[in-house]
């Protein structure tokens, strides 16, 4: 009888402790598929900027009164995985889509078929040059 009471009490304490402890919550971190200087971009943000820029190219327009998107001449000789002609379009660290004004330092590069070539930045580059984002 004592053993049964002991096992029942132990079982109840185990169940109570298990129920009282909250289940661990998964950590949701913002994925940095591209890092440009101190800016972190998930691939979804890159795709959004790329699509917005490509839509302007297809329509023959620009974002606001800016010159973006415009042809990117690749003076830095990046080895992009897609064929030119390349276009550059700003990607903004705040998450919104560029619509004119100051473009910031970071750009998505895509070709005339809308294929992503890469993500580049003025951050860490000399003069008006670009370096690849990591």
TrEMBL record:
The keyword rRNA processing does not apply. CDD domains: fungal_RNase (cd00606). Keywords: Disulfide bond, Endonuclease, Hydrolase, Lyase, Nuclease, Signal. Residues 1-20 form the signal peptide. Belongs to the ribonuclease N1/T1 family. One of its GO terms (molecular function) is ribonuclease T1 activity. It catalyses: [RNA] containing guanosine + H2O = an [RNA fragment]-3'-guanosine-3'-phosphate + a 5'-hydroxy-ribonucleotide-3'-[RNA fragment]. Its EC number is 4.6.1.24. This is ribonuclease T1. It comes from Aspergillus ruber (strain CBS 135680). Pfam families: Ribonuclease.
């Amino acid at each position: 009888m004592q053993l049964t009471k002991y096992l029942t009490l132990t079982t109840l304490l185990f169940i109570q402790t298990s129920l009282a402890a909250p289940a661990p919550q998964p950590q949701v971190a913002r994925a940095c598929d591209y890092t440009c200087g101190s800016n972190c971009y998930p691939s979804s943000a890159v795709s959004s900027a790329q699509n917005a820029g490509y839509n302007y190219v297809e329509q023959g327009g620009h974002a606001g009164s800016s010159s973006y998107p415009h042809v990117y001449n690749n003076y830095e000789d990046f080895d992009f995985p897609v064929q030119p002609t390349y276009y550059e379009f700003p990607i903004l660290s705040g998450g919104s889509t560029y619509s004119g004004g100051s473009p910031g330092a970071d750009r998505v590069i895509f070709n005339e078929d809308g294929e992503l070539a890469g993500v580049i930045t003025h951050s860490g580059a000399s003069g008006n040059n670009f370096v690849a984002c990591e």
